């Protein structure tokens, strides 16, 4: 039995048809769904990781693509979880490969995980390579544009403002977009930044308030004080 089939069998053992139908509808996805819960996917990934801690970069990428090419939601979830355990095997040379998987994912459940946990961690290890996100921020695919912003989510959430000027440059270029997932992302990253730097987040929201969508503003100011929210709303 090959490794992909072995993992699929593990997941099928805890899957239900009801969950498969619900998640496919909820995620509005064209992928095949087994109906296995996320904790089961994470457990399968952990088992694989523990058994393959010495796996090399090329073998890791090949395993990911074997799982990805099944077009099965849960197997793709496992593949991303495995990457998150072994992201230190990857580097900026793998960003074009990741960009293609993000475009192919075409859904927030996998795009966001790839962007924040995989691309983001690669860039934190190689901060001089954040410049590569400039092209992503102008990509034709809005999921790739979303990923460019989410690549900075975790450091901003943790309080580092080093990439804030880059994020706001991207956000300002996209603030007029009608795409829901772009509007949501701008607000989301601002909201996470506001947890450690409310004054910085508020200042930027005031700057873009006349052009930003209501969705962006609502998301961005969720954690700000009521008087600051009122000021932003009044602009």
Short recap of the structure:
The protein is mainly alpha-helical and 235 residues long.
Give the helices and strands, then pairings:
Blueprint: H1 3-12, H2 17-27, H3 38-51, H4 57-68, H5 73-85, H6 95-105, H7 108-125, H8 133-136, H9 142-150, H10 153-158, H11 164-174, H12 180-194, H13 198-208, H14 214-220, H15 226-234
Helix pairs in contact: 3-5, 4-5, 5-7, 6-7, 7-9, 9-12, 12-13, 12-14
Write up this protein.
- It is a single chain.
- The protein has 235 residues and is mainly alpha-helical.
- Helices cover 69% and strands 0% of the residues.
- The protein has 15 helices and no strands.
- It has helices at 3-12, 17-27, 38-51, 57-68, 73-85, 95-105, 108-125, 133-136, 142-150, 153-158, 164-174, 180-194, 198-208, 214-220, 226-234.
- Helix 3 packs across helix 5 and helix 7 packs across helix 9 (142-150).
- The longest helix has 18 residues, at 108-125.
- The termini are far apart.
């Amino acid at each position: 039995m090959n490794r992909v089939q072995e993992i699929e069998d593990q997941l099928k053992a805890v899957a239900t048809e009801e969950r498969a139908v619900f998640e496919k509808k909820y995620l509005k996805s064209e992928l095949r769904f087994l109906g296995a819960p996320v904790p089961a996917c994470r457990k399968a990934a952990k088992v694989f990781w523990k058994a393959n801690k010495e796996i090399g970069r090329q073998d890791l990428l090949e395993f990911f693509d074997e799982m990805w090419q099944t077009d099965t939601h849960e197997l793709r979830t496992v593949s991303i979880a495995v990457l998150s355990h072994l992201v230190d095997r990857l580097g900026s040379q793998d960003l074009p490969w990741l960009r293609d998987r993000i475009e192919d994912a075409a859904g927030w459940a996998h795009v966001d995980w790839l962007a924040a946990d995989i691309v983001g961690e690669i860039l934190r290890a190689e901060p001089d390579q954040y410049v590569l996100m400039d092209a992503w921020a102008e990509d034709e695919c809005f999921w790739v544009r979303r990923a460019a912003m989410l690549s900075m989510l975790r450091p901003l959430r943790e309080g580092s403002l080093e990439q804030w000027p880059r994020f706001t440059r991207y956000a300002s270029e996209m603030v007029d977009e009608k795409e829901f997932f772009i509007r949501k992302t701008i607000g989301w990253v601002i909201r996470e930044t506001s947890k450690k730097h409310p004054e910085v987040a508020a200042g930027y929201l005031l700057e873009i308030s006349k052009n930003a969508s209501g969705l962006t503003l609502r998301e961005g100011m969720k954690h700000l004080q009521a008087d600051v929210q009122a000021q932003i709303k009044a602009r």
